[in-house]
C-alpha cells in the first residue's frame, strides 16, 4: 500500500513515452508529440509520439521478421506459456504502476483500474494453458490407405486497434490469446490512452518475449489507424471501437489484402427486469450496469426494460442507488464514478441528455455536469417516460444515462430487448428460471447475464451479434479466432497410378 499512496499524487511532469519496436522503446526524436491531459484533473500527464507511416511500416516489418523466422511460433506451447505466466507475475508486481497511468489517462477510479489489472492477470494465466492445449483434429477414418490431420496455425502478423474506455483490459482480452498460438503483433492504442499499452510491451520483453513479437505504434486513428487497416502486410486485424470506424475497417480489408477481421463495436444493451425479481438486487445491478466506467462501456446496460407493474417504483429504486454512488476524483480510493474520458465524449453525453429532455422524456435524476473545480464529470442520469423511437433509447450514448421502458408481457419484453441494430450483451432479472432460460435463448446478444450484469472471466467468449461485430475474443473461442486451420492428407502405401 505504501507504493499506492506514494503514487496517488499527480505527476510533477508528464511522463514521456516513445513507441515500441523490436523489444525497445524508440525515442520520440523529431516526431510530433501528443500531450495528454488527465480528464479528471486537467493536468498534463503523458507525452506520446505521433508515429508516422514509416514508423508503422517499421513495426510491421519487425513483426513480420519475428513471425517468419519462427522465433515465437517455433517454440513449444510450453515455452510460450512460460512467457505468458511470467507476464502475469510481473503484472501482479506492477499493478499499482499500470493502474495509476490508466487512471490518469482515462479518468476511471483507481480502485477499479487496479481490479481491471487483476482481471488481466487472469487472462494471461488462462491463455498460457491454451498455448499448451491448443490442438487440431485427426481423421483416422479415411480408409487404410490414408491418414489426415487438421492443424491449427497462427495467422501471422496481427494488428490490434483499441479504444480509450478500457485501454488495458481490452488489450489483455486479446494479446495473450493472440500470442498463445504463435502470432506476432502490432498494437495501436487510442491516441488519448496509450501509456498502458506501451507498458505491457515493456513488461512482455521483461518476461522473456522475443524481440519483435509485440510492437506498439502510437498516433491518431484517422491517419495511423487508417494506414493499419489498409496495410498489405497485416494478416489479421482486431478492431474495437465505434460502429462507424468498424465499417471503414471492413471496407479497407476488402480493398487491401482481405485481412481476417475481428470486430467489437457498439451496443445498446437491455436490462430486462421482471416484477418477480429480487428488486433490491436488480436495482443495484442495473445501477452498476449503467454507471460502471461512467457508462463508457460497450456492454453497459443502458436500456432498462421493466415490467409495468413495478416500473415507477423500480426506476426510483435505481435512481436512489445512483444518487448514492460516489462521483469524484479518480485518484481517490473511494470514488465509484470518475471523469468522462474525452471532451468530445463529454459533449456527446450532454448532447444526448438535452435531446432526451427535448424529446419529452422525464428526467428522474442527474442530467447535469458536476463541478469539482477540475476535470469533467457527469451525474448518473435516469430518464423515464421514454418511448422506443427516441434517440436516447436507440443510439449508443456511451455515458451514465439510463432509459426506462415499461413492458406488459414476456413476448413484449423480448421484442423490445431485440429492437436494436446492436447485439452485444443483455441481462434478465427474475427468480423464475424457466423464464430466464427461455429469454436467454431468444435475445440476440453475444453475452447474456441472469440476475447479474457485466460479469465474466477469461474462460468466457466476448463479442457481438448483429451490428455489434464479428468473431469472439477470450476463452478457447478467442484463441481459435487467431489461428487458421490447415488440412494435411497423408497417403500410405503404394500409389494407385493415374497414368498406367
Ligand atoms: O471511437 P473510434 P471514438 C463508440 C462510442 C463513442 C464513439 C466514438 O459510442 O462515443 O464510439 O469513440 C481508432 N481507421 N465506442 O471516437 O474513433 C482510434 O484511434 C483505423 C464504442 O474514440 O472508433 C482508436 O484507437 N482506426 C466502443 C479506435 O479506433 C481508427 C469503444 C477507436 O476509436 C480510425 C469506443 C480509422 N479510420 C468507442 N479512426 C466499444 N463498443 O467499446 C479511429 N480509429
TrEMBL record:
Entry's Gene Ontology molecular function annotations: oxidoreductase activity, acting on the aldehyde or oxo group of donors, NAD or NADP as acceptor
Q: Where is the Aldehyde dehydrogenase domain?
A: 28-488
State a single Pfam family of this protein.
Aldedh
InterPro entries assigned = Ald_DH/histidinol_DH, Ald_DH_C, Ald_DH_CS_GLU, Ald_DH_N, Aldehyde_DH_dom
Q: What is this protein called?
A: Acyl-CoA reductase-like NAD-dependent aldehyde dehydrogenase
Its source organism is Shimia abyssi
Q: Which positions are catalytic residues?
A: 264
Q: Which domain of life is it from?
A: Bacteria
* Keyword annotations from UniProtKB, A to Z: Oxidoreductase
Is Ligase one of the keywords?
no
Q: Which Gene3D superfamilies match?
A: Aldehyde Dehydrogenase, Chain A, domain 1, Aldehyde Dehydrogenase, Chain A, domain 2
- What family, per the record? Belongs to the aldehyde dehydrogenase family.
Q: Where are the transmembrane segments?
A: none
Amino acid at each position: 500500500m505504501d507504493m499506492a499512496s506514494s503514487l496517488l499524487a499527480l505527476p510533477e511532469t508528464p511522463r514521456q513515452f516513445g513507441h515500441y519496436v523490436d523489444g525497445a522503446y524508440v525515442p520520440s526524436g523529431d516526431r510530433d508529440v501528443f500531450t495528454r491531459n488527465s480528464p479528471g484533473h486537467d493536468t498534463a500527464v503523458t507525452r506520446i509520439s505521433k508515429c508516422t507511416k514509416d514508423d508503422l511500416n517499421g513495426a510491421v516489418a519487425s513483426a513480420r521478421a519475428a513471425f517468419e523466422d519462427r522465433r515465437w511460433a517455433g517454440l513449444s506451447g510450453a515455452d510460450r506459456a512460460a512467457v505468458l505466466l511470467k507476464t502475469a507475475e510481473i503484472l501482479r508486481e506492477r499493478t499499482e504502476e499500470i493502474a495509476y497511468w490508466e487512471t490518469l489517462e482515462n479518468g476511471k477510479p483507481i480502485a477499479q483500474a487496479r481490479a481491471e489489472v487483476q482481471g488481466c492477470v487472469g487472462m494471461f494465466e488462462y491463455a498460457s494453458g491454451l498455448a499448451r492445449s491448443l490442438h487440431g483434429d485427426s481423421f483416422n477414418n479415411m480408409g487404410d490407405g490414408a491418414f489426415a490431420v487438421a492443424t491449427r496455425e497462427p495467422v501471422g502478423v496481427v494488428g490490434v486497434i483499441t479504444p480509450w474506455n478500457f485501454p488495458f483490459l481490452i488489450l489483455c482480452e486479446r494479446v495473450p490469446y493472440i500470442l498463445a498460438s504463435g502470432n506476432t503483433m502490432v498494437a495501436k492504442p487510442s491516441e488519448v490512452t496509450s501509456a498502458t499499452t506501451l507498458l505491457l510491451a515493456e513488461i512482455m520483453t521483461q518476461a522473456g518475449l522475443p524481440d519483435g513479437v509485440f510492437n506498439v505504434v502510437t498516433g491518431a486513428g484517422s491517419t495511423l489507424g487508417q494506414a493499419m487497416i489498409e496495410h498489405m502486410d497485416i494478416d489479421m486485424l482486431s478492431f474495437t471501437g465505434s460502429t462507424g470506424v468498424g465499417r471503414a475497417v471492413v471496407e479497407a480489408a476488402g480493398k487491401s489484402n482481405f485481412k481476417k477481421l475481428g470486430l467489437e463495436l457498439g451496443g445498446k444493451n437491455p436490462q430486462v427486469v421482471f416484477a418477480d425479481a429480487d428488486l433490491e438486487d436488480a436495482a443495484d445491478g442495473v445501477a452498476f450496469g449503467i454507471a460502471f466506467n461512467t457508462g463508457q462501456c460497450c456492454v453497459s446496460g443502458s436500456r432498462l426494460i421493466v415490467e409495468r407493474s413495478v416500473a415507477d417504483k423500480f426506476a426510483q429504486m435505481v435512481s436512489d442507488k445512483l444518487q448514492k454512488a460516489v462521483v469524484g476524483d479518480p485518484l481517490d480510493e473511494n470514488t465509484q464514478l470518475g471523469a468522462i474520458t474525452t471532451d468530445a465524449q463529454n459533449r456527446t453525453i450532454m448532447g444526448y441528455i438535452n435531446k432526451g429532455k427535448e424529446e419529452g422524456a422525464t428526467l428522474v435524476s442527474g442530467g447535469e455536469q458536476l463541478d469539482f473545480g477540475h476535470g469533467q464529470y457527469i451525474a448518473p442520469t435516469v430518464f423515464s417516460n421514454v418511448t422506443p423511437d427516441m434517440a436516447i433509447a436507440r443510439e449508443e450514448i456511451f455515458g451514465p444515462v439510463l432509459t426506462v421502458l415499461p413492458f406488459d408481457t414476456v413476448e413484449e419484453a423480448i421484442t423490445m430487448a431485440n429492437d436494436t441494430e446492436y447485439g452485444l450483451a443483455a441481462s434478465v432479472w427474475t427468480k423464475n428460471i424457466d423464464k430466464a432460460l427461455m429469454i436467454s435463448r431468444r435475445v440476440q446478444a453475444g453475452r447474456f447475464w441472469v440476475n447479474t450484469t457485466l460479469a465474466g472471466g477469461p474462460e468466457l467468449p466476448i463479442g457481438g451479434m448483429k451490428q455489434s461485430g464479428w468473431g469472439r475474443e477470450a476463452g478457447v473461442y478467442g484463441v481459435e479466432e487467431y489461428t487458421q486451420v490447415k488440412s494435411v492428407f497423408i497417403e500410405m502405401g503404394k500409389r494407385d497410378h493415374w497414368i498406367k
